[in-house]
Amino acid sequence: MGVLTEIELRDRVRREGPLDTISVEPETLITPAAAQYAREQGIKIVFTDREKGISKEQLKGQKKPEHYTHLDRKNLVPKTHPRIKLRGMLDLLQAVIIKTQVAAQQEGMPQLVGDLEQMLAYARQLLRAEVTGDGVPELRLFGLSEEDIREYSHHPFSKIGVNHLTPSYHMGQVIAELNYLRAVVRQVEVSACDAYLHQDGTPERADIIKALNRLSSAVYVMECKVVAGQYYSRAKGED
């Protein structure tokens, strides 16, 4: 259990300037001197926690603490909240997809650029669904359904004509970028599990978790197609 003292509160004001609100953990002990100083300075002490955050009703129009952000239209949470971390990872995913598109364009793989553009649009849908609570549509990439993608990733030789890959620098820049992209997708999936798995192991947003799992398989399929030579343009092959 923490303690908020007058000295600590005065130090916060000295460092950060005038405060409208200060948030503390639910079991924090507020010393009488700290409570009196807060009243004198017009500082509202708000009890919160990592998951529930602060409602706009609690703030009543006062300035939002800088270390808080909107979880939805009604509630603010610390920026360390698992769902806010997930949104940051989904932002990172989009950035890595675009970086991979640049490498694919430079290597003369316009079809791969297009497939990654489809993936980028889907990643943006995932972020929107996380924020709004809307459902996630089934993933379809390069003409394949989710189950097709899973089948291709499990049996690349029969479906694509190459054995399972162990990526290395010998395979070039595009494979390196795709391999990194796949690793990022897996990290986003872990973040989704942190955000949505209940203590009993049941998921709150199984659709998002499943979609991310299939996305990592889709990236692996792209890697196999690159190695199989399916993404090079005709002009590239003639050079």
From TrEMBL:
EC number, UniProt record: 2.5.1.17
GO BP of this protein: cobalamin biosynthetic process; ethanolamine metabolic process
Stored Pfam families: Cob_adeno_trans
Single GO MF descriptor: ATP binding
InterPro entries (alphabetical): AdoTrfase_EutT, CblAdoTrfase-like, CblAdoTrfase-like_sf
Domain of life: Bacteria
Keywords: ATP-binding, Nucleotide-binding, Transferase
Domain Cobalamin adenosyltransferase-like, first and last residues per copy: 63-225
SUPFAM superfamilies assigned to the protein according to its UniProt record, in alphabetical order: Cobalamin adenosyltransferase-like (SSF89028)
EC supergroup of this enzyme: transferase
Signal peptide residues on this chain, from the entry's feature table: none
Coiled coil (UniProt feature): none
Protein's recorded name: Cobalamin adenosyltransferase
